[in-house]
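A quick word before the example. In earlier lectures we treated sequence and structure as two separate objects. From today on, think of them as two lines of the same record. Here is YtkA-like domain-containing protein written that way.
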Amino acid sequence: MKSFKILAVALLGVIASCTIDKTDYEAEIGSQVPEYYEFKEAVSLTSGNYKISIEALNGTFYKGYNELHFKVINTQNNQSVNASEVTFLPILSTNGNTSSCPHEYNVSYDATNKYFTGYSVFTSETAVSNSWKLYISFKVDNQKYEINKDILVEKQSNKNLNMTTFTGKDNEQYVIALISPQKPKVAENPLVAGIYKYNKPTTPAGTFPDPAQFSYSEVSGYTLKLDPRMPEPSMGNHSSPNNQDLTQQNDGLYHGVVNYTMTGNWTLNLILMNQNGLILKGTVVPTDFTPGVEGVKSELFIDTLF
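And the structure line, produced from the sequence above:
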């Protein structure tokens, strides 16, 4: 009987702690986790009589995945023009070295909305040692225009849009970026991520910036195995049922389901497998319930909070 009372008290302590943490996280969400659904101009670049305006959510470039809209405008009459062959190349300079990030170099035209669409997964924020510059080109009336401009990439304060970079067991460089949901619910949530690989150059570098030296592509036919846990000591690293691994769909992105059973800190423990079933990164997380101890994580993971 005495042992039963001790166990009951311990369980009540875990439940109480869980409830307190949940309340704290809900308060944090209200003040710190933003949602942005409106595209605004983040930067514009001008060459001759033409300006290209680049729109992003909230008019800001963030570390992580950014959907981008491109509009080419005649500055003489402020009207859109019939441009073609629009290219987009972000370059990161770090202590004299240059690199890029996953991006769509040849952006595509959306005839319905009358703008070009693309994306960029900025892998770092602008800092003293890190600076980003965009290199843009387009054609109007068969004349090519080339422009470049420094930009500011800001910290992504919404942890549900976090990202990670790593080298796989195949010695290739990968980037995984969360795309949605921005603000999950206590429910089974559709989970969307982009998975990209750096394309190692096969030819010597041409005139800078040579896009062949900075190329990335969406990986094809991979599987991203998912095991969400609550790693806080008070949560015991518990998981949830009905999660679905992420697989590639027609849009090139990876779709799955994550079941958040309560608000708070969650870790998306991941295992990336290529089309042949080879594990490129990630480890299985123990299923033990460990109250009072910080949860074990996969070697490949992304933390979220809502």
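Notice the following. The longest strand covers residues 64-74. We will return to this example when we discuss secondary structure assignment.
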